[in-house]
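agent> call fold_tool(seq_1)
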Amino acid sequence: MQDERIEFSRNPKDWAPMVERVTFQWFYRQLGMVNLPMGIDVISQAIDILVKEKGMGSWRWLLEGRTLVWEGVPVNGVAKVNAYVFGGKRRKKNTVFVRQGFWKFYAIETALKVVNKSLVGRTLARLE
């Protein structure tokens, strides 16, 4: 939980270097998970900056405004990896990165894509 006495920038350009640094963490960790104390709205924009300005893979929404997949992320020149990135749209206090490993969630990814394109998904995308 964020401490209300601590101030966080909401500028995606400020967060881009931090997002780039945590790619190494979710690459090497056994469970492949790491989080940042900022909403996915800002983190997705930071990822977009890294993709466009540094060629760090590509990304797309699986569930608009809540879950994305970041693909082909280069890590120190030794690997290109993929990650799921998810966060709450309402509280905007935390975003989690999960490396895709041998267990890629095909069923979950497919379900999220279907929900995202449905009336339910469009409604969820508009909700704060």
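agent> call fold_tool(seq_2)
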Amino acid sequence: MKSPAETQEDKRGQGFPQLLHDRAREAGTELYRLLVSLAIGGVGLFFLALTGKADPPLSPRQRLVILVAVLSMAVSALSGILCLYADARRYYFWATARQTNDQSVRSECYKQRDRWYRLKRLATKGLISMFVVGIVAAATYMAMRIAR
């Protein structure tokens, strides 16, 4: 026999609300993938800009701004990868908890699920904030190059 909490969880996983949850999850996952791809592409472009000849040469301020942009994009990419990994681990532990009959194993799996969820939330904040910093730094670098 199912506990009241499990029965309520089963009801929440049905119908139109579940469809909306599935769509929100899919949109979130696509956002992570897009930001990670853009961040990795940004790092690659900045690498090319830094290793090639620049005419006129980069000023110390421009080098600092582009360094901030590269590091921000790299941290953003790593945070995005961590988000996706944490999401996978969270769902693994959630599924394992739902499959087991041993209460101690179930309890530990739920604790692990919650830990991975907290890590995902933290990594999401890092992904978004570092991506924004990287974009602002890249725009600043472009403005500095054009204004020269």
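agent> summarizing second result for user.
The chain has one domain: 7-147. Helices lie at 4-12, 15-51, 60-99, 103-147.
agent> awaiting next instruction.
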